[in-house]
Amino acid sequence: MAQAFLTCIHPSCGRREAVGATAPACAACASLLDVSYEFDRIAPADLRRLWRERLSSPASEDRSGVWRFRELLPFLPSTVAPVTMGEGGTPLVEAPRAGRWAGEVRLSAKHLGSNPTGSFKDLGMTACISAAVSTRAEVVACASTGNTSSSMAAYAARAGLSAVMLVPHDGISKAKLAQALEFGARVIEVRGSFDDAFRLLGELASRRSLRVVNSINPFRIEGQKTAVIELLEQRGWRAPDFLVLPGGNLGNVSAMGKGLRELAALGVLDRLPRLVVVQAAGAAPFYRGWASRGTIEPVAHPETEASAIRIGRPANWPKARRELEATRGLVECVTDREIEEAKAILASDGIGCEPASAATLAGVRKLRSTGRMPPAAEVVAILTGHQLKDTDYILRHQGSSESSRCVIEPDPDAACRALDALRVA
Ligand code: F0G
């Protein structure tokens, strides 16, 4: 039987606790926790076959792109059924125009926006809410730039838990707020940044009985790591040269790295891709910290139009650094203008995504132009959120252009003039 533990990540602590412990951090030194395992020994070929066979199973656990890989996340007691909504199973699509634009790389996009609530957070939330149910939590809570909160709200509703979210007032998109409200979450809008909301949540959780489901909750990482397993399966277990993702609170890169290391340790993967984190220039503490190889200096007033990654004090940076070191990773930052351009180029391949997700492509282009990524490299960009998560952004940037939009009376001559004005051949 596989065994699961909670292990402090601090090298000089390493304290181990039972997997049912509910504190959000190490009880001895307050560092981040990992879920660590003694896995059952299964031959790599058998694991791959088992995972593939489940694709044609009618059981909801097998149809979930998280729980289909449950041999790599064996932390739930067998008496607890996962809270699942068919998350995962997201497409990997080639993006040829974007690849050429970025500097002649072979680019595909793994679109995690095709999840039940429209972002990668669902992969983590199915794991984390299932763990919360197994340890009898009643109220779950998060600070969020909008996607974590929509996802929490949906999975909490499904599990019959109450959900509370702290979000920056006027700092998240309307669509994300609407999703969470529909799922019945209680919304506290904080006059401040995401970082202020996150700090406040910590203080609240020490006074009231709340289960924090931000990505410092190690079960979130367990669910999110399956994105990389599914991606490699879709590629016939051939690793790309680079795996690129946007960085905010740095949970997702931590998850990808852990997944990759575990696959390699089990012999399922023989070569690791290099992880690349891309931050927005106005919210890039990890980029700067990585460049100086020191601890990170928080950014007091993070600024970017990509509101999902408007974070100045990323909680998971020690884990992110560990995973970048393990994969000879890179960190880049890009301006809002570069993100806007990249998003438009992805759209020309028929691929829509959130602004934060488009930072990946902008980052690839920058790495190519500075020679840190070779031409013809095989690159997978992780697109983290759905295009419709932030339609205000699109309307701000595309909606005002007279060459793409006009208003007319219902009259055929006016319609013809409109075609000319819009330059439709
Ligand atoms: N992309 C999107 C669309 C996101 O919503 C987030 C984070 C990220 C990228 C960055 O991922 O934090 O793991 O480095 N959103 C969080 C939220 C912070 O509250 O929804 P990360």
Description:
This protein has 425 residues and is an alpha/beta fold. Among the domains are: 1-38; 92-116 and 220-399, Rossmann fold (3-Layer(aba) Sandwich). Helices cover 39% and strands 16% of the residues. It has 16 helices and 13 strands. It has helices at 44-53, 60-63, 96-103, 121-134, 147-159, 174-182, 194-207, 218-224, 226-234, 251-265, 285-292, 317-326, 336-348, 355-369, 391-397, 412-421, and strands spanning 3-8, 16-18, 33-38, 92-94, 106-111, 139-143, 162-168, 186-190, 211-212, 242-246, 274-280, 330-334, 378-383. It has a 6-stranded mixed sheet, sandwiched between helices. It has a 4-stranded parallel sheet with strand order 8-7-6-9, sandwiched between helices. A 3-stranded antiparallel sheet has the order 2-1-3. β10 (242-246), α10 and β11 (274-280) form a beta-alpha-beta unit. α3 packs across α14 (355-369) and α10 crosses α12 (317-326). The radius of gyration is 21 Å and the shape is globular. The model has no long low-confidence stretch (mean pLDDT 96). The structure holds ligand F0G. Ligand F0G is lined by residues 119, 121, 144-148, 215, 246-252, 308-309, 354, 356-357, 384-385. Residues 119, 121, 144-148, 215, 246-252, 308-309, 354, 356-357, 384-385 line the site of ligand F0G.
